[in-house]
Structures are given as C-alpha cells and as structure tokens.
Amino acid sequence: MPRTHRTSRVMSWLAVALLGGAPVVTGGVAWAEPPSDDDVAAAHAAADAAALDVDGAQSRLDAIRAELARAEAAVQTAAEDYAEAREALAAAQEETQKARDRADRAQDAEARARSSLAEAYRTTARANENGLGPLDVVTGARDVGDVVSTEAAQRAVDRKIAGALARQADLRSSARNADARWQAARTAQQEASEAAESAFATARRTADDLAARTAAAEHERDRLFARLADLRSTSVALERQREADRQERVAAAREADARERAEDAAASSATSSGATEPRGAPGSSAEPQADRPDGATADGDRADDTASGSEEQAAAPDPQPTRTREPAPDPAPRPDPKPDPKPDPPPVSGVGQGTAAQGREALAWARSKIGVAYQWGGDGDPGYDCSGLTAGAWNAAGVWITRTSRSQYLTVGKVSYGAMRPGDLIFYANDTSDPSTIRHVAIYAGGGMMVEAPRPGIDVREAPVRWDEVMPYAGRP
C-alpha cells in the first residue's frame, strides 16, 4: 500500500478514535483493522512536516519583508546622497561664478593700472622731448630756484611712475591668483558634477534593484500563499488575509517597542547632557533649570543640613590636644587612574524659530502636495524628494531651512517625541547615533500621522508614523 494512502487511512482512524464513531468507509472498502504503529508514526511525521512547512513559509514571508525594508532603506540613503551631491554641485557652481567675477574684476583693474603706467611713461617722454631733461633743466634755468622746482616736479613724476609700476605688479599678481582660484573652482565644480552624476546613477541602480526585488518577492509570496492554502486546506485569499492580520499585529508590536526605545534614548541623551530637554527646543513646557553653584547638590535640604552640622561642629570648643607621635611621612601619591572617556551625547544643537501657527501652515502646505510624484532631488518641478518637501513646506510658512535632511537635523531645534506638534520634523537614519547616516525626513501631522515623500514609485502621502530607526530627537525649524 502506498505511504500516502496509508497516511490518509491512519488520519481517518485517528479521527474515528477521537470522535468515538465507527470506521469510515472510503472508496467502497471498509477498514476492518486499525493502522499499524508504522502507519501512526508516518501520520505523525506528515503532520509535523506540514507544520514545519507552514512555519517555514511564514518565516520566508518575514524574511522577504525584511529584505524589502533593507532595500527601501538603501534607496532612501542613495536618494539622500544624491540630494547632498546636488547641493554640493550648486555650491561649487556658485563659487565658480564668484571666482570668475573676481578674476574679471582683477583683470580689469590690472588693465587700468597698465594703462596708467603707460600714460606716465608717455608724459615723461614728452617732457624730455620738450627740453625738460636733466641737462636742459640746468642749462635753461634762470636761477637756482628754477632748477630746484623743476627737479621737484621731475621727482614727483618719477614717484608716480614707481607707484604705478608697483600697483600694476600687485594687480597683475592679484589677477593671476584670481584666475588660479577660478580654475580651481571650475575643477571642483567638475568633480562635484561627476559626484552628483555618480550618486544619481547609484540611486537609480538601487531603485531598480528594489523594483526587481519587489517583483520577485510578489511572485514568491504568491507561491507561499498557495502552499499555505494547500497545507491548511483553505483559500489563497484567506491566507493573504491571515498573513496581513499577522503582520499588522507584528508591526504594531514592533512600532510600540521602537517608539519606547526612541523615547528612552532621548531621555537618556538628555540625562547624559545634564538637561531634561534638548537645547534649542522652543515651545517646551519645562522651564530651564538654573545653574547650580559649585558644590551644590541635588538634595538642597540635605546640603543645608550638612552645612548646619558643619557650623555646629565649628562652633563647639576644641578638645584638649593630646601628645602623639610624629606621623610617618605619607608615601608618594600615585596618580589617579584616568577614567574611561564617556561617549559624547548626540548633538542637540540647532535653533528653532518657527511658531506653532507656522508649523500648522507648513503642514497644510505639505498636505496640499499629497499625490504629487516623488522626484530625485525634487523641489517641486514637477515632484519632490523627502527633504525637498520639508524645505518647501517650511519656506512656504516663512521659515527658511536647509535643503537636505542631514543638514536639516543639524540646524533645526530639537524636541522630544512626547512634545511634538504639527509641522515638526521626524528623521530616520541607518545609525541613529550618527546624523551623517540620516536617510529620510517627514513632517509630523499629529495624531500619530506624518506627511512624507517616501521614495521613487510612491507619491507624497500621509501615513502612520514609523518609529523604527528614528533619530533621538524630532526637529523644530
């Protein structure tokens, strides 16, 4: 008898035994005898294998989701690298133009100096031709005073020529230096242009890789859902819904844990820097604590008690001295071991100037862009990238902020996540302790929602806040 048939027969016998009924008749043949031990073992093995297949399919679905999340993070990182490269190129182009303008002005000044020098030489030449040379001055003079005045005039001309020579030499040197700086700026611009092109190519390759991975993942998911439906004797649609529900529960638990970790990290950073709120966090309800004087303790009453006790001891009469032996000299003190350096707390620099009303205005502007396509390095013509959206929103509200998400985090004020208000910025990074790894920024919309330009292929949208891989603080422009 084939193993599969024996396994089916065993499963039927097991069902009969559990239900307490009569043997099941299948295919016109009644089973008169119970299955053997081997058949029971085979049935158990088949059930275990099916369970393993289910677990394996679900594990693979989780792995696919994690792979796509990493690929999406890589796309956002590449997009931010490209945005920075574009900013560097724009700065290099501006510097090149300034250097060209300075070089042109220096060349014009040198040309004018050269013209003045030539005119001075021509004046001297004409004077000599008109009998005003040194010998002519002496022989043609009426008296000594005439000679002196004429020589003084000649010395003035000589000084003018010498000054013109020196000025022309200085300006010629300045013109050469300005031209060299322009050449260097042009080289830097070319390098920045090549870096931007390289960053764009990398970003496009990364996005194409994500698209290919997504297509492959969809195909594999279809196969896995079909396998789960077969193992559980259900439908593919039901298995998709089951998986969606399971992932929703997993995501909710992960997001709750990530938010708790983010808030704990912010609190820990604030404690290590000696403040309950990061500096530059306007709108915080907490008043800044006054600096404690040297020697003060956190427990003021206890410090006062200690001070009072010290005063009482000082006021008590000194006991009669007793004769003691001369103390032995203290051994040479050993240097105290240097404590391990503490890691620097995350930077909390930056200043926020925007009001709550401006934050709401920035949010309203961002919401008006929902549905607009994502564009690499986009500032709205026709689409946006993540930091182009946030910069445009706050610029529209009357507050200028920098163009890239990394520079935005460094320059805006910092607020804890519990103190966020609409319009604040939420930053995501590959390493939340290193602002240089920031890859994405979104605008907080309130109620656990945010507005963002996520990545190529996904339009500007309003979505739930993702708490995984957020920076220690939110930002307030």
UniProtKB/TrEMBL annotation:
Listed Gene3D superfamilies: endopeptidase domain like (from Nostoc punctiforme)
Residue stretches of biased makeup (Basic and acidic residues): 95-112, 239-264, 289-305, 323-343
Pfam families on file: NLPC_P60
InterPro entries: NLP_P60_dom, Papain-like_cys_pep_sf, PG_Endopeptidase_C40
Molecular function terms from GO: cysteine-type peptidase activity
Gene Ontology terms describing biological process: proteolysis
Membrane spanning stretches: none
Region (Disordered): 91-112, 238-359
SUPFAM superfamilies, per the entry: Cysteine proteinases
Key words of the record: Hydrolase, Protease, Thiol protease
Domain NlpC/P60 positions: 356-477
Protein family membership: Belongs to the peptidase C40 family.
Protein name: Cell wall-associated hydrolase, NlpC family
Species the sequence originates in: Krasilnikoviella flava
